[in-house]
Each structure stands twice: as structure tokens, then as C-alpha cells.
Amino acid sequence: MENINALDEIHKGACMGTDAIDCILDKINDKNFKAEVEREYDNYQDIEKIIEEIYPKYNDGNPHETGVMTKAMTSMHIEMKTLTDESDSKLAELLLQGVNMGVIEGRRILNKKEINKEVEDIVSKYVTMQEESVEALKKYL
């Protein structure tokens, strides 16, 4: 059961990452920042694919994704936060807030140690990816 919960949480986190990036990508001005965000988008999609491939080993259903309401709320949150400031610095700040939530959730899962090695490796990959994103995004604040 913990394996399924861990996979669901990480999949949702990756989906939220791609949703957020979809909302801000066209607002980014700096080409290097845009390239970094596109790289992160690809990383989120890679995590999603890995989870979708192994999920049937643990559950008959599909991994949890962000719902329509969550997507809409993410979009509205980003629009509200960038209403008066669409600078790359503000966009980096918003992305960092989401990435930090991903690091926290991933670390909580890893600290419980109630998951098998395969799932632990995926969660570790996700956390490492998120921590690298933190470092990369700091440059654009």
C-alpha cells in the first residue's frame, strides 16, 4: 500500500510541475531560463512515464494525476501572482515554491522507509531532480 501511495504522490507532483510550467512558459523572457524550465518539464514527463510503466505491478488502476479543479486552481494562482509582476524573477520564485513542496513530500516518503527498492529509486530520482531544480532556479530570482 505504501508503494502505491508513494507512486501516486510523486506522479501527482510531476503532473503539477508540468501543469505549472504550461502556465508560465510563454511568459518567460530569458532564453536560458526558458531552456532550463523546458528541461525540467522533460524531467517531469520522464518521471510520469516511469511511474506509469511500473504502476500496474502495484495497482490495477492508473496513477493519480492532478484533477481539473487542481489544474484550474494552479493556473489561477499563477495568474494572480503574476498580475502585477510577470518578471522572470517572479516566475522563478513561483516555480521554486512548487519545487520545494516536491522536495519536502519526496523526503517525507523516503524518510518513512516503508517502500521497496524500486519505488525508493524512483522517489530518490524525483527528489534529486527537484533539488537540482532549486539550484538551477535560484539564478533567476
Describe this structure in words.
It is a single chain. With 141 residues, this protein is mainly alpha-helical. It has a single domain (2-138), classed as Ferritin, core subunit, four-helix bundle (Ferritin). 77% of the residues lie in helices and 0% in strands. It has helices at 2-24, 31-54, 68-81, 88-112, 117-138. Helix 1 runs antiparallel to helix 2, helix 1 (2-24) packs across helix 3 and helix 1 runs antiparallel to helix 4 (88-112). It is globular and about 45 Å long. The protein starts with a helix and ends with a helix.
Question: What keywords describe this structure?
Answer:
Ferritin; about 75% helix
Helices and strands, in order, run as HHHHH
Tell me, rounded to a whole number, the average pLDDT.
92
Query: Main beta sheet, described?
Result: none
Residues in β-strands, percent: under 5%
CATH class: Mainly Alpha
CATH topology: Ferritin
The tally of beta strands, per DSSP, is: 0
In whole angstroms, the N-to-C terminal distance is 39 Å
Number of domains: 1
Category by helix and strand content: mainly alpha
Figure out the total of helices.
5
